[in-house]
Amino acid sequence: MPKGWKFNKTLNESESYESIKYERVWKNCTTLSCSPSLGNVICTSVSDLKYNKTWDDANTEISSQGDRQLVKWNLTHLGSTTGCFVTSCTELYPYTCTFAGTSIPDNRLLPGENITLIFKAYTTSNAGEGVNINNASAEGVNESGSIISVTDTSANVTVYYPYTQTKKIWEQTTEPGNLTNVSINLTNTGNATIKTINITDSLPACFEYKNNLTIEGIVIENKTWGYKGPVNATDSDGNDVTDKVNVSDDNRANTTLSAPGGSYAINGTFNTSIYNVTGINNVSVVCEVYSGLITTGPVVNISWFNKTSGQWQEVCSGTANLAIGGNDANFTCNDSNSNITDIIRSDFTTPKFKCNITNSTPLTVGIVFGFDFLGLWINYTPATVNNVTIQQSDTPFQQNITFSLEDDFLLKPNQSIILNFSVYTKSCAAEGQNENFANATGLDLDNNQTTVTIIPGTANITVYKADINVSKTVEPNATPTQNFVNYTIRVTNLATSNASARNITINDTLPLCFEYYDTISAIYYNESDVILNYSNESTSYSSSTQQNFTWFNFTNTSISDVVLAPGQYIEVKFRAYVHTCANEGYEHTNFANATGLDMDNGTLTNVTDANISVNVSCTPNMTNTSWSEWYNITTCNSSDQLIQQRNRTEYDQNNCNEISNTTYYENRTVECDFCTPNMTNTSWSEWYNITACNSSDQLIQQRNRTEYDQNNCNETANTTYYENQTVFCDFCTPNMTNTSWTNWQNITTCNSSDQLIQQRNRTEYDHNNCNETANTTYYENRTVFCDYCTPNMTNTSWSEW
Fold this sequence. Notes:
This protein is mainly β and 801 residues long. The protein folds into 7 domains: 5-159, no CATH class; 168-218 and 383-463, Immunoglobulin-like (Sandwich), CATH 2.60.40; 224-382, Jelly Rolls (Sandwich), CATH 2.60.120; 468-615, Immunoglobulin-like (Sandwich), CATH 2.60.40; 622-671, no CATH class; 679-728, no CATH class; 736-785.
């Protein structure tokens, strides 16, 4: 055995191998009796004499020659093989053959005979990489007991050590607060298998593993692989039929079979790309067959090519139902009718299958048979990471992540496994390019690490951070005191890639004798201007200290926290008042700065402050006021003249306090009135009657006042102004008065009693004759004595003369 090789076992028939195979020059005779007649035997059939013998490894002799193993098989332990053995035979039935014997010692070979021994050897890690020479020899004696000469032989076996390459891929750029997708691809670039794999990723400082781990391979699709067709296929006629049988589409590989017993086959090689498999669960192989004639029962069998033995091994067989001519029928090998799953577990990378159909129709006419699809279906459990170990240091923050694959996972040649996971970028990550290393360890199949070569992988990721620039302008840039200046502060994210800033605070430090007055506007530019709300605070103004003013908590109705992406800015405009204590002839510098957080809530480090100066040097700008109104500076003289004056002042419009104001005067003489009447009204007089009360009970009253010259200039006569009014009155007021009593008058004649009644009266009347009250007469009676008859001496008239 070569150095580092170990004998394992001699293979036997139970493992589908021919452990010791004999090929004899004698023939095997099938006969009813193996009794020779005159040295001949009549045989019903004759076949080549080939048979197998099973070897018991208890008889295998193993010794050491230096660093190599010597393995011997002493065939005397096999004994003999019995049968009816013949040599030359006639060509026609019945066959007449020369009898040779009924027993053959298995440790003897006749001229022209062959013996083949098959065994398995184990390659240890001590085997030399590259070509290993395996020598074989034999020894024996001839019929006379003399040692025979045997030609030694050798076979070269190439030993490969595992070679793998680690590749690291992740997104090219990131920023604090961002999750970055990372892929580590471990590819077996050699010709040997590697196991017990640990993949380690040394993350740059301030990058943190965030799981989201998935595992995949180069072309693996999902947990069920198939049904898929072969990557190449040929039929039994030697034709390439790959494109005809890798899809079920009626594009068939076919041939015409005339006689019963004729057969047609296809074989195909599959490339499963299943390399990260720890357990294959179920397997099926399907053969979709076709017949151009209605038929039942054509025999179909499916075989697997055993790469170790180099022979086709039947997996399953049966009949296909082609009762409907011109259609396809599926014949399937699965766990119910075969050991197909165990076969694939031993050969799951590029298995090779053959499907054969045999014409069992008892007709001699030609029948078209064919194949539409040869497919493989596998359900498997993909490899998993058994454990993830994180080694972490805190100053600076750095992690090494080790992914330990399952112990029974094998990474075979040309296979890859890809780990995908997420990494979080912290604020402390270095700006610019960060180099990342990924490596792996593993063992060869002999559990040795020294033979395994793994090339580490590197990948760079660029960290971008927000680049905050503060710019400032002022209008006007030269100003006198007692004036306003307008400042504009713009905070812009100048980052060249996606790196944002949030929670922006703007601070401004005003020069001495400058006082914050008000904020004109605050906007956020994101393709268009957005008006912002804000909070602010400031220190109190003092002529001896600089005033600080701060804007923060920028929001609006739809934005709770303004995030500045690259190219975006916040702009604040405000006014400041320049007090007279601001020194003239100096540049008064104003400072502005900003603070904020990155998306990991780390303090921004790339912040450029700004300052701007205002010139308070003052150039007098002499300007005249308008003329005042004329005003008297003398009184009017007896000539009726007086002197008036007006003025205007030349002053410094810039208030530089360098030139005093100058007042200019102008006089003029104007006409006046030495004595100017000052017409004044007296008070109104009392009302007085100017008519008597009339019969309508009304009368007219009057009052007056006199306009007179209060200055007694004697230039204007007095004027009396009258004002009348009609008022109600009592035209006649009754004055009730009694008249005197009248004389007593007889109201009766003297009666016989010499009495009579007398009466007198008096009348109450209106002495003023107002005709408003009727007169009232009051009567009074009395009884007086009389002369019932009193002579009434009366003269007659004079008679005529």
